[in-house]
Amino acid sequence: MRKHLLWMDFSKPRNRIRLYEYENDDTSNSSAYPHHFDMNNRTNNIDELMAKDGMSAEELFGRGEGMTYNDFLILPGYIDFTAEDVDLSSNLTRNIRLKAPLVSSPMDTVTESAMAIAMAQCGGIGILHHNCTPQYQANEAKKVKKYEQGFILDPVVMKPDHLVRDVFDAKSRHGFSGIPITDTGNIGGKLLGIVTARDIDFLKPDKFETPLSEVMTKREELVTGSSNITLKEANSILQNAKKGKLPIVNEKDELVSLISRTDLKKHREFPLASKDEQKQLLCGAAISTREEDKERLHLLQQAEVDVIVLDSSQGNSIYQINMLKYIKSNFPELQVIAGNVVTVSQAENLINAGADALRVGMGSGSICITQEVMAVGRPQGTAIYKTAEYAGRFGVPIIADGGISSVGHVTKALALGASTVMMGSLLAGTTECPGEYFFSDGVRLKKYRGMGSLDAMESNKGSASRYFSDGEKLKVAQGVSGSIVDKGSILKFAPYLIAGIQHGCQDIGAKSITQLVKMNRTGALRFEKRSPAAQLEGNVHSLHSYEKRLF
Predict the structure, then answer these.
(1) Longest Cα pair distance anywhere in the chain, in angstroms?
(2) How many CA atoms within 13 Å lie on the side-chain side of 340?
(3) Fewest 10 Å CB contacts: which of 163, 177, 414, 513?
(4) How many other CB atoms are there within 10 angstroms of residue 48's CB atom?
(5) Per residue in 61-98, pLDDT tens?
(6) DSSP, res 432
(7) pTM assigned to the model
């Protein structure tokens, strides 16, 4: 009796299939000869056979059900590259591209200058919160922009008659003490010398009134670079001369810029660092849509922030549209992230008003109770897919904001069309977050609160304005306050996130975020809905006790 065995041969092109004929159920029969036939001429080709596994994102989210990250899984693909080969570069906005799709949330228990610096060093970006005075926020932005630079075009400069005390004051404000001395005390003046930590560190307090002319390293002892020098050449001079600072002068011996040895070291330690054209770390800042925040906007623009986030729980408002148009008319080159949105109609209005990116999410954060209290919002998975599908037609990137509680959620958000993910609770508790650690029942914790919590809204008007509650006598909370376990430094946690995303993309078979998005749009990326039992099965189970160490 002749029988047939039909099987796919993955050593052959995808449009080939092998048919073996054999007799008497003996598949090892040497008389069985494989016969190839071309499936291109048949309706049930291999692509159709493989499509029976799972469903496309369009099919998954086209049923009218609201789904979030835990409600589905991505089916594995074919691996022919290492995890390290996965390119995670992605657009934050139309004109800003990051090497890692990670953004810290503008919350007062998550992002100030320390977090923004660390995020930028790791390839992402930090968004400074606005639950503070405009001056404080602008100063935090300056700390980020001055932290790591190539050619420092506006260094702190002093005159010879400044005092040692002035250098210590500058060090306390800016964090460094290598200060060039010119005849005018400004950039562009004739270079006379430089004062470094080695010149003043061992001076006693009674010497703090000494003029800098008596302690500075004189001009004839300095190693300098010419104004047409490249950054690579300047770094080589610093290495060979073993100096901490390299003043750059023009043909008239006037100071035009400065290069720091510490910046060279930082560049080697953080190759993924997010930088602008001047080699300064990228930095974003949030503002509200209130009229008085236009002053804040101007201060932030002077501090050279790279992107502004219009911070509102419901971004589809006349207030946000007016502020967006104001920014674009006064600072057309400044990138603006609008939001938050969860529907196509919301996204449409903000894109038409000139948004360079959209922040997606409403009520999905771990400390947010908007969906519970206001009965408004959308499950995060559905929100990302629907808005990304629309915004992608206009080249507007999507930022998935909220609901990210694991590295797997990051990968799922990117697979649904997000270009980057914004994280609050996932980063809270790290060393770089604002606030002090405290102990409770022997556990080291840090405070973490939602910007819609009464605690946050009562501390500053910036938080209340995000939820349209400023000026109201009775405030309705849309968030809670809590605490998060110590996670250590973001400089160790962010690399774990990056490696986790790369491994996730490898299992999917996507060598880049760009390819991941393309697979989604073409239907090659396959999804499957998870039952409650499947969700339990996919987590740790059936153990008496266990230790969960992520990195």
Answers:
(1) 107
(2) 27
(3) 163
(4) 11
(5) 998 889 999 999 999 999 999 999 999 999 999 999 99
(6) T
(7) 0.73
Q: What is the mean pLDDT of residues 501-513?
A: 97
| Cα distances (angstroms) measured from residue 492 to each of 274, 487, 499, 505, 506 | 17, 9, 11, 21, 22
Distance CA 74, CA 95 (A): 30
Q: What angle do CA 353, 127, 450 make, to 5 degrees?
A: 95
Spell out the residues 6+ positions from residue 95 whose beta carbon is closer than 8 angstroms to its own: 335, 356
CA 227 – CA 302 distance, rounded (Å): 25
Terminal C-alpha separation, the chain: 58
User: What order do you get walking across the sheet with 179-182 strand by strand?
Assistant: 179-182, 191-195, 217-218
Q: Among 174-188, 361-375, 414-428, which range has the highest average pLDDT?
A: 414-428
Residue 147's Cα: distance from chain center in Å?
Answer: 18
Strands (E), 15-118: 16-23, 34-38, 72-74, 90-91, 97-98, 102-104
Backbone angles phi, psi at 167, to 5 degrees: -70, -40
CA angle 351, 317, 320 (to 5 degrees): 65
What one-character DSSP code corresponds to residue 520? Answer: H
Please report the pLDDT score of residue 258 as a whole number: 87
Of 284, 263, 264, 272, the closest CA to residue 140 belongs to 284
Supply 255's token pair.
């100071």
pLDDT, one tens digit per residue, over 214-264 is 989 999 989 998 888 877 788 788 888 888 888 999 999 999 988 887 776
The residue that leads in pLDDT, 479 or 205, is 205
Active site residues: 368, 466
Number of alpha carbons in the 13 Å side-chain half-sphere of residue 453 = 19
**Euclidean distance between CA atoms 407 and 202, whole angstroms:** 48
How much is the pLDDT for 11?
A: 46
C-alpha span between 464 and 459 (Å, rounded): 9
| Measured distance CA(116)–CA(284) in Å, rounded | 8
- Which residue, 396, 280, 275, is CA-closest to 336? 396
| Pairing state between β 191-195 and 179-182 | antiparallel
pLDDT on residue 447: 81
- Indicate the SS3 state at residue 200: helix
pLDDT of residue 92: 98
State how far the Cα of 106 lies from the Cα of 126, in Å rounded to an integer.
8
DSSP 365-408: STTB-HHHHH-----HHHHHHHHHHHHGGGT--EEEES---SHH
